Input
Amino acid sequence: MEKTKGEILEEKLFNECKNGFEGLDENKKEVIFKFSDDYINFLNKAKTERLFTKETIKLLDYNGFKDIFNVKEIKPGDKIYYVNRSKAVYAAVIGEDKLSNGLNLIGAHIDSPRLDLKPNPLYEDGGFALFKTHYYGGIKKYQWTTIPLAIHGVVVKSSGEVVDINIGEEDTDPVFTITDLLPHLAKDQMKKTLSDGIAGEDLNLLVGSIPYEDEKVSEKVKLNILSILNKKYGITERDFNSAELELVPAFKARSLGFDESMVAAYGQDDKSCAYTSLRALLDLDKLQRTAVLLLTDKEEIGSMGNTGMYSANFEHFVSLLLEKTLEKEFNCLNKCLCNSEMLSADVTSASDPTYDFVDEKNNAAYLGRGLCLIKYTGGRGKSGASDASAEFVAKVRDIFESNDLLYQISDMGKIDVGGGGTIAYILADRGIDVLDAGIPVLSMHAPYEVASKFDIYNAYECYKAFFED
Ligand code: MN
Ligand code: MN
Output
């Protein structure tokens, strides 16, 4: 059948959006699925920012990257990294151009919503030992009860000795959980709103129930737990004062669906963008402009602090690069930043058919349609938005289109419903052209988030193309 005039015109003029799996050849599908297997394996080892940093350093070392503090001079082709307090990593592949002509940056965050232990966590009540928690980032509290939880993090003794805690991931490990009321007796609780049904102070982690055998002791279960911890880790109750212990879902990242087209996992915000941009960086070869990857901490609570994106450690890293590439002209750092371009690689909310009333369907992000560009973040009148210029969006579009890569563009949620933010504005404030570009996910910030395998691989391809431009 010959195409009608209207059909031909439609093809030429409409902005066609399609599911990336449609018309995909089998070989490409195999590549996409293999990449997702690697991603799933990585996620299972890297649920917290400290673990993500540790696994990232392993990959960087393996791929010939050098710690900047062990390098005297840097030249084109060199691969360098900088670790910020075990919780953030910046890495670069040096290009032929002077750094002060600008960098191609991609920034993602490696912290995710979770529950942290309070500084005095352990107590005994009603014959149980429990931990008090303080949630981190935007969570729906009821989602964190009655699921298996693992504990990760460090206890640092006053001597400076760091004790790694990592329990709940192996099949032979015990897990932990936060209890909830049975429906039979929850008549009053069920009348509360979703946000009040479980209070912050109700998120208490169950950690033990055997009493220590000694009539003279008042808190026998608590003592028994401390005795176990002391034997295993050599710590006392006071050592919790200088600890960072995080509770994350103990379940594993898995393929989702009969067609295995999706990944279900904890922490895909933003570890999906962090992993794909890291893989893109590892696969870079000869570059004109220097590519820099920023894997940062504390985004979920505002990017503050010395491991967040606001930290001067970022400028320190760029200054060290300038110093060691022997670029020393006046105001070199600002020149470098103002000439730089960046993708803020952070996930966005994908339209969920069960809850699509929060979306404006012409400007929603959809699972499986590729990396999602977000020209401006914020909500309710672009409040707090980082707004990329039309010129820069056009440039990024051109990179993807000339590499035949699918992408979509969206505006998160209906205008009056809400919105979100990323690290984009922090770097835009420094004079960098920044555009948000992330993987769409379902159930964002829930203990189990969903992403499309097509989008995960597509993000890797898009990030690589941007680094190489
Ligand atoms: Mn995020
Ligand atoms: Mn988030």
